[in-house]
Structures are given as structure tokens and as C-alpha cells.
Specification:
By secondary structure, this protein is of the alpha+beta class. It contains three helices and two strands; from the N terminus they run H-H-H-E-E. The chain has helices spanning 3-17, 20-23, 31-41, and strands at 44-49, 52-58. A two-stranded antiparallel ribbon has the order 1-2. Strand 1 and strand 2 form a beta hairpin. The protein is elongated, with a radius of gyration of 14 Å. 5% of the residues are buried.
């Protein structure tokens, strides 16, 4: 698993821990759950310039 994937998982878990329903696995719909799903769907390519990480180039994915 890449560092980017690890960070995405960590951020999604932290967002879900802010909602008691998400944290307990209860089926519901809330903004935190939506944000966590958006984070999990992020895809990108690392930008490396002169052997240094300069950021991420994100691609847009349609909302399915």
C-alpha cells in the first residue's frame, strides 16, 4: 500500500470517528460519511521534480 493510500485510509477513519453512528457502523447518511467516501475515492499521481516530492496531480472521477 502506498503512502498516499495509507494517508487516505487514516483520514477517512478519523472523519468517521467524529460521528457516533459512523464510528459504530450504523447505517445512516451524514456529511462526515460523505466526506470520508470522497477521500477514499481520491486518485492521483505524485509530482516529483528534481527528485523531490512536489505534490499530487489529482484526476476527476464522476460521482457514481
Amino acid at each position: 500500500m502506498s503512502e498516499f493510500e495509507k494517508q487516505k485510509s487514516t483520514i477517512a477513519r478519523q472523519l468517521q470517528s467524529l460521528c457516533a453512528h459512523c464510528d459504530n457502523g450504523i447505517l445512516h447518511s451524514c456529511r462526515l460519511q460523505t466526506l470520508a467516501l470522497e477521500v477514499k475515492r481520491l486518485k492521483g499521481i505524485p509530482l516529483i521534480v528534481n527528485d523531490r516530492f512536489s505534490g499530487m496531480l489529482f484526476t476527476r472521477t464522476p460521482n457514481n
